[in-house]
Design goal:
flat; 18 strands; single chain; mainly beta; 2 helices; two-stranded antiparallel sheet
């Protein structure tokens, strides 16, 4: 017999976060039980800064399922097709930024060599197969990737002077953007309010998932998987040097812009699990997850 399923809609969206610091590095309890941020005068410089990394990273990933179709064939082969929307976002902030904010004083000349933001957004069309061979179940998935938008912004240096209404900011950095469906630069390379551009994709790629589950006995099983082995070849419509300044209003400009293309690998997901069946109703398990790749 052949059995199957079909699903449409936003019924399976997963949002995950990863960071190399925790809330306890930014929130501190007071003697009366309140919580204050590390920049508060109650928290000493040593207490706040000693818990930070040289580069503090925080990332958010979104995986949204749009459509799913699957089934099981006569030979025990399980198959499925999925269309998913995915987004990977990472922010890196140098410890120097928090050091200056905590200590105060003149911000002029501070070097932001490790201040960057990276966002990668794409549509995933996945075709998967699986089969059980004795106590071992194996799965394989191949995924076509259509890039929607990508941006990589790195601030190399930023100078700040004055306070309040007298504050002025200027800085330089590097920028790469692939967003075919948006118009955001004028003829002089200055950023303007975005408007809709051409319909199409900004990159194309491929990725693979591999997984296995081994039943040690009727109650205990082990599992392992690796996901998102691959990348997207992005077509950058902006690739140049970024300069910006602010006094009464922001003025952001790109110089030396030369459209280019580059393969950007996806963050690879590594998973391992152990599951034990207590009875016909309850299961207990352990899951370990790691995400590899450049955090920028």
């Amino acid at each position: 017999d052949v059995s199957g399923y079909f699903g449409v809609g936003a019924d399976n969206w997963v949002v995950s976060a990863h960071t190399n610091v925790g809330l306890n590095n930014f929130l501190f309890p007071t003697e009366d039980g309140q919580l204050v941020i590390g920049l508060d005068d109650y928290v000493s410089e040593e207490m706040f800064l000693s818990g930070l990394s040289p580069v503090n990273s925080a990332g958010v990933s979104v995986n949204g399922n749009v459509i799913s179709v699957g089934g099981k064939g006569k030979r025990g082969i399980v198959f499925n097709f999925e269309a998913n929307i995915k987004s990977n976002n990472v922010l890196n902030v140098s410890k120097d930024v928090f050091t200056v904010l905590k200590k105060g004083g003149d911000l002029s000349g501070i070097h932001f060599s490790d201040f960057s933001f990276d966002t990668q957004n794409y549509l995933e069309l996945a075709l998967g197969f699986g089969k059980k061979c004795g106590n071992l179940s194996l799965g394989f998935k191949v995924k076509a990737l259509l890039g929607v938008a990508y941006a990589d912004v790195s601030i190399n240096q930023m100078n700040v002077s004055g306070l309040g209404s007298d504050m002025s900011v200027n800085g330089t950095g590097d920028i790469k953007v692939a967003a075919k469906m948006l118009d955001y630069l004028d003829d002089n390379g200055r950023f303007v309010s975005p408007s809709l551009g051409k319909v199409g994709y900004s990159g194309i790629g491929v990725a693979f998932d591999l997984g296995a589950v081994y039943e040690i006995n009727e109650k205990l099983e082990l599992s392992a998987s690796i996901g998102d082995l691959g990348g997207i070849n992005w077509q950058y419509d902006t690739d140049g040097q970024l300069s910006f300044k602010y006094s009464d209003d922001f003025d952001i400009k790109v110089a030396g812009n030369e459209p280019s293309q580059k393969m950007k690998m996806l963050p690879v997901n590594l998973n391992a699990g152990l599951r034990y069946r207590l009875n016909n109703t309850f299961l207990v398990g352990l899951i370990a997850n790691a995400k590899t790749g450049k955090q920028s």
